[in-house]
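dude i think i finally got it to work??
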Amino acid sequence: MSASVAPFLMFEGQAEAAMSLYTSLFENSQILDVERYGPEGPGPEGSIVKAAFTLNGRLHHCIDSPSKHDFSFTPAISLFAECETEAELDRLFEALSTDGQILMPLDTYPFARKFAWIVDRFGVSWQLRLS
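look at this
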């Protein structure tokens, strides 16, 4: 038997908002399962113990950590979206860069006809490339 491997994103109270945004942006995406904290905690009631969702058919997981950490996401690992059209790339760039940070502006580079590297409003790093 082979272990399955999927990204696991740890948020501090924003897992549902991030998961909802991401699944709204990519075709063939959906929230599969959500388990929430109840009044007994340890996280705030209604926050996410664990959730599973797909982005264009690929499995991802996320949680709302009940503990505060001295770390967060880093651009050293990113979600990479290979876009089929310029319109798709522009739409994703607009949605994911809003209230985020642009690490590499949407432009032509020696390695891509059009590419951008951003950190979204939730701190998740994305590389967007026109195939």
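DSSP finds two helices and eight strands in the chain.
im so relieved honestly
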